[in-house]
Recover the amino acids of this structure.
């Protein structure tokens, strides 16, 4: 239970808020787990400060809590700016909910603003690197050849649709229409979107679905997922990560450190290459399933950097 050492009134308010996020907001399981951890830390801090209910909380309590998260302590390492910003979002959402539901008369978190996390540009591969990665995914010979077709199809699907890894492994065969070359993806918050499937991805999927998936499905219990493991069950996110990591190693791409290739790298590359090719940012927003174009606009910074790089190397008066 969240904040077991906190007074019952605080625990009840947080329990109701998490129920609201689960049922009415339909947040993902990953986000809910993160919010639950964030709110447990918050309730523990309020309990130590002698706060028994949300109506007693002042803005200074919230800012003090966020500062403590950033600085860390004997029992907890310092949180990054991004993690602290997420914790602030959870706490501020709790206080908005508390006012609406009558747990508190005023919103103590309304004017609290955490320090903005540093803006990091998405890591994207260039087209040659993507082609090396995709070729490496299907390069296994011998006994591993059938799974190599699955692995190639998975990575082609990720790059060809811009799907999140959770969307790819969660996609069902019925969500894929190779005749119309479209796929239905189920994203964050239960949002759905139809995205085009490129010809290379369609060819890889067709080969996998006709030559490999039937045998994999026969080993399992009839999973509807497109991508199956060797036992016939739905491929997990962790296994998909392993597929990508092996392919990246064979392609000579980094698998450790800040430039390591990840499933999201293919999503970043998809968006960046679309924008480099002249796609409108609003179209890319729809394809990525972003609720706000502001989220998508970070990719335009990447393309501006690319334009600047090309200018600096190609224009005769760009450099001294």
């Amino acid at each position: 239970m969240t904040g077991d050492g906190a007074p019952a009134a605080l625990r009840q308010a947080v329990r109701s808020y998490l129920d609201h996020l689960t049922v009415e907001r339909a947040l993902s399981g990953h986000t809910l787990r993160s919010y639950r951890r964030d709110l447990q830390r918050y309730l523990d801090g309020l309990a130590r400060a002698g706060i028994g209910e949300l109506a007693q909380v002042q803005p200074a309590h919230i800012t003090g809590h966020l500062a403590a998260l950033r600085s860390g302590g004997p029992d907890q390492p310092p949180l990054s700016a991004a993690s602290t910003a997420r914790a602030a979002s959870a706490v501020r959402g709790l206080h908005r909910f508390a006012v609406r539901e009558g747990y508190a008369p005023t919103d103590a978190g309304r004017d609290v603003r955490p320090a903005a996390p540093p803006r990091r540009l998405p890591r994207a591969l260039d087209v040659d690197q993507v082609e090396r990665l995709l070729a490496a995914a299907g390069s296994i010979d011998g006994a591993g050849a059938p799974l190599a077709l699955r692995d190639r199809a998975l990575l082609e699907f990720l790059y060809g649709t811009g799907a999140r890894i959770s969307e790819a492994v969660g996609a069902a065969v019925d969500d894929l229409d190779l005749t119309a070359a479209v796929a239905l993806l189920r994203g964050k918050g239960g949002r759905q979107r139809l995205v085009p499937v490129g010809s290379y991805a369609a060819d890889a999927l067709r080969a996998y679905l006709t030559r490999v998936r039937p045998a994999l499905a026969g080993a399992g219990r009839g999973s509807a997922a497109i991508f199956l493991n060797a036992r016939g069950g739905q491929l997990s996110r962790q296994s998909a990560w392993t597929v990508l990591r092996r392919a990246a190693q064979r392609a000579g791409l980094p698998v450790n450190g800040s430039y390591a290739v990840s499933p999201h790298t293919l999503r970043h590359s998809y968006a960046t290459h679309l924008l480099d090719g002249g796609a409108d940012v609003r179209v890319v927003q729809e394809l990525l399933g972003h609720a706000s174009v502001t989220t998508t606009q970070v990719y335009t910074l990447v393309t501006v950097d690319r334009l600047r790089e090309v200018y600096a190397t190609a224009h005769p008066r760009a450099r001294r």
Q: What stands out?
A: The mean pLDDT is 85. DSSP finds 14 helices and three strands in the chain.
